[in-house]
């Protein structure tokens, strides 16, 4: 019973921890930060601006910090927080920032695992553009499209789509509290990844404020720029204000199941079987694994009814023992809170922005191309009961996500991937972090022989600062330092991203410790 209660917390823990008219700027920077604020208030209402000295500043900064590690005093905090309500405010922030040498970082939902959307590791004078007030969603049922602001949460997008049509959906992240801006910018995948791929490849237009303060859309930006913002990571290429997406059909009924199996009940053998079966199933069926302690929970969503799912499972994965008693039939929209919070969840949970559950967290990721030996899978379950142990989540690829060419979007993890691994660890007392942090480091090292190589790949939305940090020389992030971590997220697409950065932001105005560095073509 205790184990089942712990598993009930897992989706919540994963989600709360788990991730931007032409205006010109003055060429000569004026470093007076008071002048920056004075510039802002000429174009942005003062009620939308928060200086570090403001009594409301700590509350506004903390409201969407999902990882309490980045709330501590040693983190470099912004000078100002700007909470725009329209694109012109963002344009003005960029213009003022360029004029007065204040960089901008951009926060949509606050799930950035390393907190780089609102903190800096090194001393730097910067402001945060917090898109929390920009979360409109507009659905065009006839065209089967929607416009969604970057500050909206995925739950708000899903809710609004379903309100307009129960048989349309969008393939983005599992967790409804994730911000649209960050999720789409880094790729974005969830329970529909095998049917429809990632969020970014289903984006058909954007509105983005570039490093010159110009508001662009697909028709006014270069093809490379449009390619880069859809999966090349947040912030590097401007501030995406809103995204136009294609809405995709789902049946009136989907079926969700959750089947926990302990090691004693054959979890090792089942995971061993799953790593070949999961990526080869029909695209209507997604079965992921959440491994915690001595238990693997097989969590599935099928685009159809229990009546058609049960014979399919008996044919493709009989060892799991799935039967009609495991079925939970519902409209697609209800599967989102069900998977996130469990059977008691409601659609209104998709609209909840008042999350106060903020543990300390550490995350890493891997990609698997060859089956992990069964003996190693058995050792993984030994690791999962060690002191400081976290959770391992395995998402199967194959079908739609693997059919798209690597270069079609910056997200390169396609053909040949069996599954993605996310290592999630969390704790609730700042002083208790040593064991979880050590476990995460050691677990990641243990897995090295069994995952992708040259490079060892990682998912950009599971940002991991241990993969590398940009070095800044002459006020520009260097390509050599960025390549160290960048090729792990983007493989061969990293160079094209850096060349595009060199064209749209050659002075590296939009930057953080893992932003794309500009590569200037000679």
TrEMBL record:
InterPro entries named among the record's database cross-references: BBE, FAD-bd_PCMH, FAD-bd_PCMH-like_sf, FAD-bd_PCMH_sub1, FAD-bd_PCMH_sub2, Oxid_FAD_bind_N
Record-linked Gene3D superfamilies: 3.30.465.10, 3.40.462.20, Uridine Diphospho-n-acetylenolpyruvylglucosamine Reductase, domain 2 (3.30.43.10)
Signal peptide extent: 1-21
Domain of life: Eukaryota
Keywords: FAD, Flavoprotein, Glycoprotein, Signal
Domain FAD-binding PCMH-type: start-end pairs: 74-250
PROSITE patterns: FAD_PCMH (PS51387)
Pfam families: BBE (PF08031), FAD_binding_4 (PF01565)
Named cofactor requirement(s): FAD
GO molecular function term, any single one: FAD binding
Family: Belongs to the oxygen-dependent FAD-linked oxidoreductase family.
This protein's name: FAD-binding PCMH-type domain-containing protein
Biological source species: Triticum aestivum
């Amino acid at each position: 019973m205790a184990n089942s209660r712990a598993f009930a917390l897992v989706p919540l823990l994963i989600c709360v921890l788990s991730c931007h008219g032409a205006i010109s700027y003055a060429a000569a920077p004026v470093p007076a930060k008071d002048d920056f604020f004075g510039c802002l208030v000429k174009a942005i209402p003062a009620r939308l601006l928060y200086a570090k000295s403001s009594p409301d500043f700590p509350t506004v900064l903390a409201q969407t910090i999902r990882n309490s590690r980045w709330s501590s005093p040693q983190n470099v905090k912004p000078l100002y927080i700007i909470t725009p309500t329209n694109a012109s405010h963002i344009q003005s922030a960029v213009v003022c920032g360029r004029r007065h040498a204040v960089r901008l970082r951009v926060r949509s939902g606050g799930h950035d695992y390393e907190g780089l959307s609102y903190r800096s590791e090194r001393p730097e004078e910067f402001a945060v553009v917090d898109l929390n007030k920009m979360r409109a969603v507009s659905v065009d049922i006839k065209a089967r499209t929607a416009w969604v602001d970057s500050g909206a949460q995925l739950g708000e997008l899903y809710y609004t789509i379903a309100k307009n049509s129960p048989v349309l959906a969008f393939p983005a992240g599992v967790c409804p509290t994730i911000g649209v801006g960050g999720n789409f910018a880094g790729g974005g995948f969830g329970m529909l990844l095998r049917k429809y791929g990632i969020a970014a490849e289903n984006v058909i237009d954007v509105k983005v404020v570039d490093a010159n303060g110009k508001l662009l859309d697909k028709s006014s930006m270069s093809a490379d720029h449009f390619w880069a913002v859809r999966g090349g990571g947040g912030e590097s290429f401007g501030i995406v204000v809103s995204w136009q997406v294609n809405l995709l059909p789902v049946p009136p009924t989907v079926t969700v199941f959750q089947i926990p199996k302990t090691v004693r009940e054959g979890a090792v053998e089942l995971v061993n079987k799953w790593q070949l079966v999961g990526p080869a199933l029909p695209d209507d069926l997604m079965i992921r694994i959440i491994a915690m302690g001595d238990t693997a929970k097989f969590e599935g969503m099928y685009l159809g009814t229990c009546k058609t799912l049960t014979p399919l499972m008996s044919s493709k994965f009989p060892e799991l023992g799935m039967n009609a008693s495991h079925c939970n039939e519902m409209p697609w929209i209800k599967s989102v809170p069900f998977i996130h919070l469990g059977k008691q969840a409601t659609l209104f949970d998709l609209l909840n922005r008042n999350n106060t559950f903020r543990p300390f967290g550490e995350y890493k990721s891997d990609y698997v191309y060859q089956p992990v030996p069964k003996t190693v899978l058995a050792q993984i379950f030994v690791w999962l009961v060690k002191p400081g142990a976290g959770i391992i989540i395995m998402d199967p690829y194959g079908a739609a996500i693997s059919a798209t060419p690597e270069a079609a979007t910056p997200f390169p993890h396609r053909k040949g991937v069996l599954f993605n691994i996310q290592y999630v660890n969390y704790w609730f007392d700042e002083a208790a972090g040593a064991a979880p942090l050590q476990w995460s480091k050691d677990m990641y090292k243990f897995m090295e022989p069994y995952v992708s190589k040259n490079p060892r790949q990682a998912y950009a939305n599971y940002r991991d600062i241990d993969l590398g940090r940009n070095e800044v020389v002459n006020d520009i992030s260097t390509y050599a330092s960025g390549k160290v971590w960048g090729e792990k997220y983007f493989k061969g697409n990293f160079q094209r991203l850096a060349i595009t950065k060199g064209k749209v932001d050659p002075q590296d105005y939009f930057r953080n410790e893992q932003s794309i560095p500009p590569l200037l073509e000679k």
